[in-house]
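Appendix B, Record 12. Input sequence as logged:
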Amino acid sequence: MENTKNTALVLGATGGIGGEMVRQLLAAGWQVRALTRGATPPPRGDRIEWLRGDALSRADVLTAARGCAVIVHAVNPPGYRHWGQLVLPMLDNTIAAAIAEGATIVLPGTVYNFGPDAFPVLKEDAPQRPLTRKGAIRVELEARLEKAATQGARVLIVRAGDFFGPRAGNNWFSQGLVKPGQPVRSILYPGAPGVGHQWSYLPDVARTMVQLLAMRAALPPFARFHMAGHWDHDGRQMTGAVARVVEQASGTRPVIRRFPWWLMALASPFVATLREMREMRYLWQTPLSMDNAHLLAVLGQEPHTPLDEAVRATLQGMGNLQQAADKKNAPGLPAR
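Logged structural output:
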């Protein structure tokens, strides 16, 4: 029987999408539990119940999920170490808890589980024939969730493009285009010239998930949706928005440079995050847009923040604009 209580467990609540889901669930009136490996913060009267535990411990997840109607699976191994060995056991724990509680699992999906044969316009039911190890694991994640939907759990997968946002964590925007906490003097773009790329503003993604959760009883037990997000048709829309926002804040327009893939090739044997980024390079060399017709048919419209507004909030959240604004507003030197 489906759990209809208004409590959601968020795994990965201190991360980018998990943290945004916490904020959007609270705004929609949900009670939220959050599992954390670190010390739990003191109660603040914000309807968040922090629990100490590990997503790799089935007992911890089962205990945390007791009485929950929704489990948001937005967790990754610490520092993304041993990702390939740990993500499936973590998901299995979530599935066990969801079956026990009759809960809905929410998974933030990606395009990694698709290969170029599904491009350039990606629909929910496109064949999943990935070219990468990470993509193959993503296929297995979704296969296990589809099986769970026949065993008493419900599943909601929302696939989106590359995340960006004020608190988005590890992503191409904050690790490729600009450096957090520094004035933006240059923008590094990883894509091939003229090749389109799919972006998704994290608060819009979380709002979409929460809106779908509100009508989950009307959805099939295994439901998948694609978001259109921000489609950069030639690789210039995102860099142009960053340049405009920075120029408005500082008076100086940053230059746009090619991303140094050669440097990543040298450093990736020593840095796990760089290895993961390099494996996904094909997504920057092939145009890929996402068809959101199914989402529009269900919701009527997709939550969508204008690009410049979303980029401004992202750069402010990353600490890129404060120094620029201070510099722009600083008094001039006294004349000698």
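The domain at 7-166+199-232+288-304 is CATH 3.40.50.720 (Rossmann fold).
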